[in-house]
Structures are given as structure tokens and as C-alpha cells.
Amino acid sequence: MIISRAEIRSAVAAYRSVKRKSSVDTLAFDTADSFERSELATAMAGLAHAAAISEPFYRKDLVDDLQRRIAEGRYFVPTEEIVDKLLGRLIVEAAVA
């Protein structure tokens, strides 16, 4: 996954705007409101969960290819990309702190 500088700036700006709002914007909910899931919705949720866990969480072909390339010594990440990721992470962590 490639995270561009623009995406990092966007994430930092979004975090700062949420942080400024604090809890002033919280909504008061009516305590009389309720939610009940129908039997059909419960069954559908169970099927969706079963389908989600039956498939691997990762793309096996991609992982296998990367493992093979690493084992063969043919996997290379440009230094500039590594530095960009590290600096981007530091910027986000500094903005959050």
C-alpha cells in the first residue's frame, strides 16, 4: 500500500479537526429508542460471518509471491519509499501526541 504525502496531510488535518471539536458536539439520544434485529437479519448476519471467516484474510497468491521473491533475494523496496513511510508515520504520531 502506498501512502502519499497528500494522504498523510489529509489524515493529520482530519484528526486535528476532530480533536478540536471535543465532546461539545455529542448528541443526546432518546432513551426510549430501541433496536431489535429480526430473525432474518440475525440469520443473514450469521451467514455473512461464516462467509467472512471461510475465506483467508489475505491474498494468498500475493503473499506466496512475496515469500518466494524474498527467499530468492529478488525483493527490493526503494530507500526513498522506506524513508517516506517512516517520516509520514513520525508526522502522524507527532500530530496525535
Labels describing this entry:
97 residues, mainly alpha
What this model shows, in words?
Helix content is 66%, strand content 0%. With 97 residues, it is mainly alpha-helical. The chain has a domain at 58-97. It starts with a helix and ends with a helix.
Please outline the helices and strands.
Elements: H1 5-21, H2 39-54, H3 60-72, H4 79-96
Helix pairs in contact: 1-4
Could you give a quick summary of the protein structure above?
This protein is an all-alpha fold. Helix content is 66%, strand content 0%. It has a domain of 40 residues.
Per DSSP, what share of the residues sits in E-state strands of 2 or more residues?
under 5%
Assembly state: single chain
Based on helices, strands and strand pairing, what is the structural class? mainly alpha
Number of helices: 4
Global geometry:
flat
Mind summarizing the main beta sheet? Answer: none
Radius of gyration, Cα only, in angstroms?
A: 22 Å
Mean pLDDT: 80
**Helix proportion range:** 55-70%
Poorly predicted spans: none
